[in-house]
Amino acid sequence: MPHSGHRRSRVRAERTQLNIGRALPFVVIAVATVADVVTPDAERFDRFLVAAPALAAVTWSVRGTIAIGSLAVAVRALLSLPRSEPLVPVLLSSEVVIVLVTVAAAWVSRVRARYEQDLREVTAVAEVVQRVVLRPLPPRLGRFGLHLLYVAAAAKARIGGDFYEAVKVPGAVRIMLGDVQGKGLGAVETASVLLGHFRARAAGSPDLPALADSLDEGLVGYGGWDPESDAAERFATVVLVEFPDDRDVALLLSCGHPAPLVQHGTEVAAVDFADPSLPVNLAGLAESRHHVEEIPFGPGDRLLLFTDGVSETRDRAGTFYPLETRMRGWVREPAADLPGILHRDLAAYGADGLDDDVAALLVVRTDTSADRDTDSDTGSDTAPGTAPATDPGAPAGADTGTPAGSPANGPESRY
């Protein structure tokens, strides 16, 4: 998984911050005690003990906060013994203040713990939604290696308005990558509708234009089924790709989506779409039919599909991210490392880091001529568009049975 190192670093940083937070109350007690002992009686550093239970509420449980508050009360009493302070009002009033702060801190700790539990439950639900809506891609599908970068813009979010899917259909591999207008739960809902229709129609559609039309019809139909949803009011840019088993080509159809980059050897160039279609759910505004581009795609070639969260990342001067230039410099990098390299470079380039959903899928043709001959001898003669013997909506990886981990495949980035 390209981003497992990043996730481990983040987990280590969070654990370090937690340990520091848990140690702070004891540091305050120790420093206040030492300062009070070594300084003249007129210097009253024991007053700082009241900060210990307040700090404990940030990271400790209710019981831990009360215990730290009790420790502060005991230390305060011990420090006052050499001074022979009167029980009332000096000593008692100081102890009462610490007790009151401890009670308030315990209440804050309880509220914090309840919100943390709620957050854990919401996170667990988000992870389930992620696995349903954005299912993991296999590392290999047919003759093609798949390497995914997926990062949701919202803090702690697992999914956003960018979406992807890849399926093996009889005679071909079909891939979709897209970006829904807007952000938030509405964008996620629209993405889920499009993913559902792609999974259901990818195998049965005779070609990419028919598949694009079914996506448009599905989104319009969803609006009629749920009039209160704004999913049908949103549009999405989509790129559809088909890799036939019997030809060294890639067929691409763009519905208003950024042009993918194709790498042949050490040469990198954007796919030239002579007549891109309008985004999905805007197709009714035009009468023209979809136009499919065909490009050579042989063993060793790479195709990078991406959303505008990649290409429209800006630096402090407002300059767009030079993706094509960067890819030219990475032509010899291992394909499995490229999503991680791209993610780190994007985060460093952006003026505010990554402020939009990011999805990028690198497809690599990995077979040799011998592999192709063997496959043609043993493979199915069924053409794309013919109903398969198994579930036509089967997810990517159903043929291989090899999971890829998380959508960040990547994510946590999903990450």
Explain what the structure shows.
Helix 2 (51-59) runs antiparallel to helix 3 (62-80), helix 3 (62-80) packs antiparallel against helix 4 and helix 5 (185-201) packs across helix 6 (208-225). The chain is built from ten helices and eleven strands. It is of the alpha+beta class and 415 residues long.
Main sheet makeup: 6 strands, antiparallel
> What structural class should be given to the helix and strand makeup?
alpha+beta
Low-confidence stretches: 1-5, 369-415
- In which range does the helix fraction lie? 40-55%
Radius of gyration: 29 Å
How many β strands by DSSP? 11
Which features does this protein show?
single chain; 415 residues; alpha+beta; six-stranded antiparallel sheet; five-stranded antiparallel sheet; 10 helices; 11 strands; 43% helix; 16% strand; disordered N terminus; disordered C terminus
Write the topology of this structure.
Elements lengths: L3 H35 L12 H9 L2 H19 L6 H47 L6 E2 L2 E8 L10 E8 L2 E9 L4 H17 L6 H18 L10 E9 L4 E7 L5 E4 L2 E4 L22 E4 L5 E5 L1 H4 L11 H7 L8 H12 L8 E8 L3 H10 L37
Antiparallel strand pairs: 1-2, 2-11, 3-4, 4-5, 5-6, 6-9, 7-8, 7-10, 10-11
Helix pairs in contact: 1-2, 1-3, 2-3, 2-4, 3-4, 5-6
